[in-house]
Amino acid sequence: MNSLDPLFAPRSIALIGASPRTDSPGGILLHNLSGFRGDIYPVTPAHREIRGLTCYPEPAALPENVDLAVILRPAAEVPAVVAGLRNRCRYAIVVSAGFAETGRGALQEELARAGHEAGIRLLGPNCLGVFNPARQLDTFFLPADRMRRPRRGNVAVVSQSGAVLVSLLEGLAKIGSGVSRAVNYGNAVDLDAPELYDYLAEDSGTDVVLAYLESVGDGRRFIAAARRLAGRKPLLLLKAGKERSGQSAAFSHTGRLAGRYEVFSSILQQNGLREVGEFEELLDGARALSLQRQVSGARVCIITNAGGAGVLAVDACMRGGLETPPLPRDVLEGLRQSFPPFYAVGNPLDLTGQVRDADYGKALAALRDHYDAFLVIALTGVAGVTLGLADILVKFRAGISKPLVAHVAQGRLAGKLEKLLVKSGIPAFPTPERAARGIRLLLGGGG
Amino acid sequence: MNSLDPLFAPRSIALIGASPRTDSPGGILLHNLSGFRGDIYPVTPAHREIRGLTCYPEPAALPENVDLAVILRPAAEVPAVVAGLRNRCRYAIVVSAGFAETGRGALQEELARAGHEAGIRLLGPNCLGVFNPARQLDTFFLPADRMRRPRRGNVAVVSQSGAVLVSLLEGLAKIGSGVSRAVNYGNAVDLDAPELYDYLAEDSGTDVVLAYLESVGDGRRFIAAARRLAGRKPLLLLKAGKERSGQSAAFSHTGRLAGRYEVFSSILQQNGLREVGEFEELLDGARALSLQRQVSGARVCIITNAGGAGVLAVDACMRGGLETPPLPRDVLEGLRQSFPPFYAVGNPLDLTGQVRDADYGKALAALRDHYDAFLVIALTGVAGVTLGLADILVKFRAGISKPLVAHVAQGRLAGKLEKLLVKSGIPAFPTPERAARGIRLLLGGGG
Question: I need a surface site. Which of A48, A83, A350, B5 has the fewest CB within 10 A?
Fold first, then answer.
């Protein structure tokens, strides 16, 4: 079985179309690969050396075979470039655009043939390629000051669209999530979602997969691979091109027809595959599933210091098919006696603006055996909530194997508290509804 | 007709329960009122002077009548305090909690009677009161370092929940929106949503109203007032307590039964009132409606430099009942000739990663008469997008009376570009779907 390791973790790369100009893709890419843990061979007839690296006029002149070639030449030249790489490498990323997505289907077919005849597996064309922070592999032609990269972590991202991939990676960086592998496969002339999914299913560094797609090549193959992957780890799918005009937009974007969405969607459902509704839910899903393990269950306990936010969280839980059952009578009586009379002891448990950090701990301890998951809401605008709340939640969570997520908001402490929580494995969300969505994913529910 | 001006823009305030302690509500409130444009009379028997202000032992000792009293005494004392204010003021805010929301319905009825007998209109109890940045009126017992206040602007916020109000205000501050009036009415023993809505309908400084509610006192009165308000300016309603357990949570929160949501929701719809689905949509609505006027129409043009984001925007528009019709044939031919062959000229119009700022301007100029609204997507990770794009969009928008919103993301320029746009009246959103929601609101559609 082909592991795609030469693509995601190559030991050597030939960069076809390297350039010293830092405002050209070939120059940006060379710069972004400066930390790469392996050998880099710039290929260009125009220079003898760039950034201290010896250049080679053509692939045939390379001193050794490479694991991966990255091709940045104009579209019309690419089939010949691929043919020239025969016996020099097994994988090539075709970054160049200007194939089926601009109506040049014949050129794309020519590219496919060239790859097949040369025995080279192709990623792309019209793609950004791959990102693997563990190896400092980064084939994106976006300078560092234009795109913030996420740290190393356990989230993999597979996207048909380059822009969506980049937005997702920046979003993950912003919320402090880390990435194991990221890949944009563009027009998918050869390598497609199924093989990438199979690779990620086996990848031990990946715990959750975010997938964006607009179209599917071979439907059966796609579903089979998606099922295999989802059987191993959480897979969150965002399918765009849902509506009629979205479908034609998706066609001009990657040159493949999106297919009837309703059919696709119902097949996903029949196969137990999780589909998310919009972009933001992919990020929220990563937030939750990269930090905690999925368990089964539906009974959620909500503990809040803000009545309204608690009510919104209950609404969102119920909408998502979860339950927020009342507190067991004996626990209720016990908490009523130990809390001030104006705390509303129920589910949600409203500790009011008078709350102190320790009250959350007291409530959680009393309720830990009675619910499947805990949603803690802390608006930090009140005096009794401090950064010490993070310790209390982290300690509680360390003693259970149930999901605990937080909605932290409002107040200058919120940002700091959120960071402390995330660092210790507790996902924090900016609204009650998004926190409820996090809980739903952790309880194995759909997006 | 009672204008509620003494409540929202009083010339003088008596603060019953003032304190020098900056960690007590009475002290925080006094501090927050330090910039108040009017007279403040601290009332407390324990001190002769606080922060340079003469204190009065009881309301009867006040040197003159005041427009507004703010009451911070323990719940049990409040009815007597109100009785003591007879002939001293016409409005009082009861900040104190511990009434119907904690099962003390009799005490709340006693409070209602006291207000009625004293001829004093009451806001609350169990509320934060009012915020009016134009007068530096701020009755929230939250220190400035615990809650960021928004600037002065044209968005009014009316919330039954104090925590939701505070979260909304911080959210508005974060996105750069300004506030005209904000009010939290809590248990609504007297003043309720209808009178507050009527006041805001008349208030010339308010262009859009965000309303959060969990329960409605007199349904007919509520609907009538909401209709009057929505007839004058956009009103976005978020009703919490939608689900059965949400309803009982809402009861313990403000002591009023939430009613059957489905009935309420269908009545809203029948009356053409706009309901939003969750918290974040209130903020997104404010972003759009505070900057641009609603118009009628449904035909949206999407111009993007990121194919995938364009497809997601089309999906979201279609889901929201909008149309994204193809480009007129002659415009399409013209743009095809003036743009590089790899731009995907359609709707969405995909200018690809090779875009330059001026391309957006060229496309908008060619399409301005053919659509009702424009959704511009700019991922700033590519070299051709600069802050100059703001100028181009602002100039285009100055010449039309149609909505133009942006989805700006990804790339270190995004934050700056977003700020520039918002400052010049163009709402910018962090995801394609949320931008589409903004367009939908500006085209008069539901949330």
Answer: A48
Residue B73 C-beta-side C-alpha neighbours within 13 Å: 22
Q: In the CATH scheme, what architecture does the domain A293-442 have? A: 3-Layer(aba) Sandwich (3.40)
Q: Which A positions 270-309 lie with beta carbon below 8 A of chain B?
A: 278-280, 305-309
Question: Residue A371: beta bridge partners?
Answer: none
List pLDDT tens digits, range A281-308: 999 999 999 999 999 999 999 999 999 9
Contact A306 B167 (CB under 8 A): yes
| Rounded mean pLDDT, A410-432 | 92
Contact A306 B163 (CB under 8 A): yes
What would the two tokens of residue B340 be? Answer: 């590089």
SS3 B107: helix
Residues of B (1-30) whose Cβ lies below 8 Å from A: 23
Sheet holding A121-123, edge to edge: A39-43, A12-16, A68-71, A91-94, A121-123
ipTM: 0.90
- Nearest-CA neighbor of A207 among A272, A278, A286? A286
Residue B236: which residues within 8 A CB-CB, separation 6 or more? B208, B209, B210, B211, B274, B276, B281, B282, B285, B286, B289, B441, B447
For the residues B131-148, what does the mean pLDDT come to? 92
Considering only A325-334, B329-338, B405-414, which range has the smallest mean pLDDT?
Answer: B405-414
Q: CB of B311 within 8 A of CB of A250? A: yes
Q: Locate the domains of chain A by residue range.
A: 1-126, 148-290, 293-442
> Which chain A residue's Cα is nearest to B242?
A315
**Do the first three CATH levels of A148-290 and A293-442 match, i.e. the same topology?**
yes
Place of tokens 């448990």: A349
pLDDT value of position A251: 63
Which residues in chain B have Cβ-Cβ distances shorter than 8 Å to A282? none
**Residue burial B415-442, b: 16+ Cβ < 10 Å; e: rest:** eebbbbbbeeebbbbbbbbbbbbbbbbb
Among chain A residues, CA nearest to B238: A312
Q: Is B394 on the interface with A (CB under 8 A)?
A: no
pLDDT in tens, B5-24: 999 999 999 999 999 998 88
Which pLDDT band holds residue B367 (cuts at 50, 70, 90)? very high
Contact A311 B253 (CB under 8 A): yes
Q: What architecture is the B1-126 domain classified under in CATH? A: 3-Layer(aba) Sandwich (3.40)
Spatial contact of B180 and B174, defined as CB atoms under 8 Å apart: no
Q: Is there a contact between B241 and A432 if contact means CB atoms under 8 Å apart?
A: no
A171: nearest CA in chain B?
B410
A339-349 per-position pLDDT tens digit: 998 888 999 99
Residue A408 pairs with which residues in a beta bridge?
A: A378
Taking the Cβ of residue B211 and every Cβ of chain A, the question of whether any pair is shorter than 8 Å is answered with no
Which of B170, B308, B314 minimises the CB distance to A161?
B308
Nearest CA in chain B to A350: B253
**Annotation: CATH topology of A148-290:** Rossmann fold (3.40.50)
Neighbouring residues of B32: CB distance < 8 A, sequence distance ≥ 6: B138, B139, B140, B141, B142, B143, B144
- The answer to whether B345 and B366 are in contact (CB under 8 A) is no
Which one of B324, B342, B431 has the shortest CB-CB distance to A102?
Answer: B342
| Phi-psi sector, A405: left (phi>0), alpha (psi -120 to 50), beta | beta
A133-137: long-range contacts, CB 8 A cutoff, minimum separation 24: A133/A178, A133/A179, A134/A9, A134/A180, A134/A205, A135/A9, A135/A36, A135/A37, A135/A38, A136/A33, A136/A35, A136/A36, A136/A37, A137/A8, A137/A9, A137/A10, A137/A33, A137/A36, A137/A37, A137/A38
Q: How confident is the model at residue B217 (pLDDT cuts 50, 70, 90)?
A: confident
